[in-house]
Amino acid sequence: MSFTIYVRMKKPGRRMSKELPPVPFVLDERPETVRELLLELTKLGVKDYNERTDEGQLLPFLTREEIAGQALRGKVSFGVHYGGKASFKEAAENTIQCFEDGIYRVFAGDEELTGLEDAIPYREDLVFTFVRLTMLSG
C-alpha cells in the first residue's frame, strides 16, 4: 500500500517571487516517526538517482513538461552524474547525520520536528517543509 506526502524544500536567503508549491512523493508506507520519514524519502532519492544512471542517453534533453516539473522542485538540470550507483546504506547514514548535525530542519505544517523519534502529527492537508541551512564562515 502506498502513501502520498507533500514536501516543500527551502533554503534561507533564496529570493523567489512566489512560494514553490509542494511536490508529492509516493512512499511505500506511511512513516510514523521523523526517522522513518527521512529514510523513506532517502530511499526514493537513491532509487531515482540510480535509475538516471541506467538511462544510457548519449545526449540528454528535456521536454517542456520535464523543465516545468523540475522548476517546481526548484532546480532544472539534465540529471547527468558521473559516479557509480548510490548506496542506500551510505545515503541513509548521511541523511540521519545531517539531521542530527542541524544541516537541515524538518517541519510538519508549522511545527518543527526536532527528534528522530518524534511522532508525525498527521492532519488533513499536511505539508512537510525541509529547510537547508547554510553554514557561514569568516
Short account of what is shown:
This protein has helices spanning 34-54, 64-73, 88-100; strands at residues 3-10, 23-27, 104-108, 111-113, 127-132. With 138 residues, it is an alpha+beta fold.
Textual characterization of the structure:
It is a single chain. With 138 residues, the protein is α+β, with helices and mostly antiparallel strands. It has one domain (3-132). The chain has 3 helices and 5 strands. It starts with a strand and ends in a 6-residue tail after the last strand.
Based on CA inertia axes, which overall geometry fits?
Answer: globular
> What string, H for helix and E for strand, traces the elements in order?
EEHHHEEE
Contiguous uncertain segments of 5+ residues:
none
- What Rg do the Cα atoms give? 16 Å
Average pLDDT for all residues: 81
Main sheet attributes: strand count, strand direction, barrel closure: 5 strands, mixed
Number of domains: 1
Q: What fraction of residues sit in β-strands? A: 15-25%
Defining traits:
alpha+beta; 5-stranded mixed beta sheet
List the helices and strands and how they pair.
Elements: E1 3-10, E2 23-27, H1 34-54, H2 64-73, H3 88-100, E3 104-108, E4 111-113, E5 127-132
Parallel strand pairs: 1-5
Antiparallel strand pairs: 1-2, 3-4, 3-5
Helix pairs in contact: 1-3
